[in-house]
NADPH-dependent ferric siderophore reductase (Streptosporangium saharense), 296 residues
Amino acid sequence: MSIELRRGTVVETIRLTPGMVRVVFGGRELRGFPGTGVGDEYLRLHFPVPGTGEFVLPVDNPEGRGWSYPEGSTPSPCQPYTVRRLDAARGEMTIDFVVHEGGVASEWARAARPGDQLFVGGPRGLYEPPADTVWHLFAADATGLPALGRLVEQLPAHARAHAIVEVAHESHAQRIDAAADVTFTWLYGSGNGVAPSLLPEAVRGLPLPKGPGYVWAAGESTMLRGIRRHLRHGLGLPGHRYKIIGYWTHRAEEWQARYDALDEEVRARLDSVWESGRDEEEIRDEVERTLERAGL
């Protein structure tokens, strides 16, 4: 598959809350951008190389499979982000960035000014409720809030939904308008790297409506295991009735170091599970059990 990157130029920045900054991009190359229309669609942002401000972008491999960077180069940092709004006809794209200390994307967004640029590519959406869905449950920490906001805004007027959002402070809450019948529960001062998350407990304690529904949850990867376990094993929901998406990992460098230090037997077990060809949810069950036994 060929890689197609488009240049986006900062038109406006808005500090939505102390914890989030909105960046609106425009430019000729964003006109006609092939968005998916799915509320949680994300794409890859390619940032300037720190220290140089230059872009070193991936190119298609001559063999026609995948892509690579010029030999000996320092690639532009690349991270996936949710598209909060897209107006392809006008060539405008809105992306909300969580504000935190460190991190290429957060630092770039906080300093962004009109005229600054980056490159975008590869839109993909994951939210896929069955046609017979009569209720929706959304759950997210701050990183999932942009996608949750767009998903809620795009619900049809006849839809019913409840959203549970966990943010670091009450001042980080946002107003989200919707045509549908949507209620909100806000959790303050937990999760998001500041304290243990209360999101799994909140989901477990919520009585679900009758009839077929759909649950969408996004945020810190290890926290989400508890939500998925409740949905799959506690409630017995089939995999097509929920979507669980890990956006980040708490203390990621430490987690990665411990993962890299796993003994060969555990690594081999994980590889065999991934390659087993079993049902995707069964694979995820086994992978999560193996990681948790290893302290991950």
